[in-house]
């Protein structure tokens, strides 16, 4: 099976006219051809097969949106070759557009003043969706995304979570082969994030829709994407299973124990103390298999424990650890 | 997207305006006041005179009704919306769909203006006509030609407004493009003062610019101020302008698309 998306040494360099400060500077920049080159994407290669769900992870400014824009055909690569569904996306923008679905977390594609249903109906015209299939898909998506209560409400009245579910539904009405999502969970509350993640995992499993999603939230990857591509500063750092990354990096989950009063020093066999603020103590769990119950069991009663917080490492921390452990990651590219 | 599917945007734009039905009353009120004010001004100007340069007061009243509410296409909201979409980069979401953006704008704005024409400007024209009287077209042929001019008027205004909105991409400022256009249109379209009352050199220049096809020529043809050969000739010139503006729009749009796709905005 040949891959549905393949990138070979893809790069994108943005040229920006150097701006000088002050009025004199503004005048000077009118005549100077002094550019700054920004390497947003730098020599990235990967191949994605039909039916995969791939998380494209990286901190802000890593070049995730730029990569999505190139794959969806609204930005040309400045280096390398990119092929999506056997075509160069930007050279076949219209044909490509008909076969993919795209969701930008920061940019709405719904019609602001129209009821959600009317935006969907316009998509039926835009993508020339046969009425029967449209009705089927609408029914399925409305049920799956729990949209029945607001299908007839204008988009401007929806909560962010409702709007994002409608955006995702809209991108799927024409049965795209690939669904691209750029930070689909950004700004959503926990419940809405969860609904979006569950649905995306389901649509990938049940319908076999290939999913590429960018995020800076590891939990997105954990719940939706078995495969992870990690980028930083435009470059590819890691391509493989999340578990493999986890295993080689250690779990790095952070545990915070809060006590009513300072209980004095506390030592745990399964976690390492990273900071002691007296009544609040911060640990990092030693490995993947340690559970919260293990920790609490070891701690026992009688310390006046008030609150417990267990947090996944954030992306900045994962990348920091990644650079530190790079020599140990033999199989990493 | 098939061409036959684009009218869906017209229908949607039309029905979405129904959601703002209460704006109809304020719109009608504004148009009524403005039209009666213009009629009052011309009535004062004609006091003690039967004709001025071969134009009678009933001629002028008819001119005001046609050039005023009827062919005064409202593009303020349109220019703001398109300008914003272009400035903020939201326009790229349209590049993600298998459609032609200028065609979408055309059918969308057709729905908007059709709504305004049916709910605001046409009723106002009828009310004013019943109140103060409206002359019939100069002849049946002039009346038919007027219908063609009416289509040209709307198309011309659509193109001018769209080109103005696209300037937002290169100017990249919050500069009030719609005000800029309204200023130009007030003078150059002949909506306020017909070209025949303007100083000859100015009228000569404005008579060849596309703006005059929005208000001045359609109204003048209705009144028979152009004989049939002249009216047909100017209809042809108007169509040449339309074709030229379509060409400029296509070129600007492809420049813009190219810059969006290569430089990322
Ligand atoms: N159109 C553009 N012109 C100039 N620089 C850009 C443009 N788009 C993005 N960049 C720069 O490219 C880098 C990557 O941006 P982006 O792909 O948006 O990152 P991410 O989505 O991972 O946060 C950033 O440094 C950003 O400032
Ligand atoms: Mg981004």
Automatic annotation (TrEMBL), chain A:
PROSITE patterns, per the entry: ABC_TRANSPORTER_1, ABC_TRANSPORTER_2
InterPro entries per the UniProt record, alphabetical: AAA+_ATPase, ABC_transporter-like_ATP-bd, ABC_transporter-like_CS, ABC_transporter_ATP-binding, P-loop_NTPase
Keyword S-adenosyl-L-methionine included in the entry's annotation: no
The keyword ATP-binding belongs to this UniProt entry's keyword annotation: yes
Keyword entries, A-Z: ATP-binding, Nucleotide-binding, Transport
Listed Gene3D superfamilies: P-loop containing nucleotide triphosphate hydrolases (3.40.50.300)
MF terms (GO), sorted A to Z: ATP binding; ATP hydrolysis activity
Domain of life, per lineage: Bacteria
Family: Belongs to the ABC transporter superfamily.
Name of the protein in question: ATP-binding cassette domain-containing protein
Domain (ABC transporter) ranges: 25-258
TrEMBL record, chain B:
Superkingdom of origin organism: Bacteria
UniProt keyword annotation of Magnesium present: no
Keyword Transmembrane helix: yes
Keywords: Membrane, Transmembrane, Transmembrane helix
Signal peptide: none
Transmembrane segments: 29-48, 118-135, 147-172, 184-211, 231-253
InterPro entries assigned: ABC-2_transporter-like
UniProt cross-references to PANTHER family, sorted A to Z: SLR1174 PROTEIN, SLR1174 PROTEIN-RELATED
Protein known as: ABC-2 family transporter protein
Organism of origin: Devosia ureilytica
Species lineage: Bacteria, Pseudomonadati, Pseudomonadota, Alphaproteobacteria, Hyphomicrobiales
């Amino acid at each position: 099976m040949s891959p549905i998306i393949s990138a070979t040494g893809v790069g994108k360099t943005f040229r920006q006219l150097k701006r000088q400060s002050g009025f004199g500077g503004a005048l000077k920049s009118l005549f100077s051809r002094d550019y700054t080159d920004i390497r947003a994407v730098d020599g990235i290669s990967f191949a994605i097969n039909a039916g995969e769900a791939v998380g494209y992870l990286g901190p802000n400014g890593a070049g995730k949106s730029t990569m999505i824009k190139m794959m969806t055909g609204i930005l040309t690569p400045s280096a390398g070759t990119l092929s999506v569904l056997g075509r160069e996306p930007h050279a076949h923008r219209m044909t490509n557009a008909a076969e993919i679905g795209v969701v930008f977390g920061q940019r709405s594609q719904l019609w602001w003043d129209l009821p959600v249903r009317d935006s969907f109906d316009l998509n039926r015209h835009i993508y020339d969706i046969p009425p029967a299939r449209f009705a089927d898909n609408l029914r399925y998506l409305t049920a799956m995304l729990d949209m029945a209560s607001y299908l007839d409400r204008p988009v401007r009245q929806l909560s962010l979570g409702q709007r994002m579910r409608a955006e995702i539904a809209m991108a799927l009405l024409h049965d795209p082969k690939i669904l691209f999502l750029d930070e689909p969970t950004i700004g959503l509350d926990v419940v809405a994030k969860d609904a979006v993640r569950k649905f995306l995992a389901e649509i990938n499993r049940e319908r076999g829709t290939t999913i590429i999603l960018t995020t800076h939230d590891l939990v997105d990857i954990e719940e939706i994407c078995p495969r992870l591509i990690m980028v930083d500063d435009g470059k590819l750092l890691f391509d493989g299973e999340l578990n493999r990354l986890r295993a080689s990096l250690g779990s790095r989950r952070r545990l915070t124990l809060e006590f009513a009063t300072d209980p004095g020093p506390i030592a745990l066999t399964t976690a390492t103390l990273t900071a002691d603020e007296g009544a609040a103590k911060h640990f990092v769990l030693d490995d993947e298999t340690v559970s919260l119950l293990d920790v609490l069991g070891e701690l026992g009663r009688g310390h006046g424990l008030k609150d417990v917080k267990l947090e996944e490492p954030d992306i900045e921390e994962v990348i920091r650890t990644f650079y530190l452990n790079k020599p140990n990651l033999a199989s990493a590219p | 997207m098939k061409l036959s599917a684009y009218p869906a945007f017209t229908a949607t734009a039309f029905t979405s305006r129904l959601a703002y039905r209460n704006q109809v009353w304020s719109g009608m009120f504004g148009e009524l006041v403005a039209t009666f004010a213009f009629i009052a001004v011309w009535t004062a100007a004609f006091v003690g005179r039967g004709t001025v340069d071969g134009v009678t007061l009933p001629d002028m009243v008819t001119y005001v009704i046609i050039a005023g509410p009827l062919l005064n296409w409202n593009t303020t909201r349109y220019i703001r919306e398109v300008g914003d979409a272009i400035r903020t980069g939201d326009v790229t979401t349209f590049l993600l769909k298998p459609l032609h953006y200028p065609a979408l704008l055309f059918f969308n704005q057709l729905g908007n203006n059709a709504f305004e024409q049916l709910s605001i400007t046409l009723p106002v024209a009828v009310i004013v006509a019943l109140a103060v009287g409206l002359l019939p077209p100069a002849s049946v042929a002039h009346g038919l030609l007027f219908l063609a001019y009416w289509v040209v008027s709307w198309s011309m205004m659509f193109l001018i407004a769209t080109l103005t909105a696209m300037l937002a991409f290169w100017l990249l400022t919050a500069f009030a493009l719609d005000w800029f256009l309204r200023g130009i249109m007030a003078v150059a379209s002949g909506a306020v003062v017909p070209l025949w009352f303007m100083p000859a050199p100015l009228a000569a220049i404005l008579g060849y610019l596309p703006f005059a096809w929005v208000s001045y020529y359609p109204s003048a043809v209705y009144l028979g101020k152009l004989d049939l050969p002249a009216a047909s000739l100017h209809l042809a010139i108007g169509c040449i302008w339309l074709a030229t503006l379509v060409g400029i729009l296509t070129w600007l749009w492809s420049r813009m698309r190219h810059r969006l796709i290569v430089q990322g905005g």
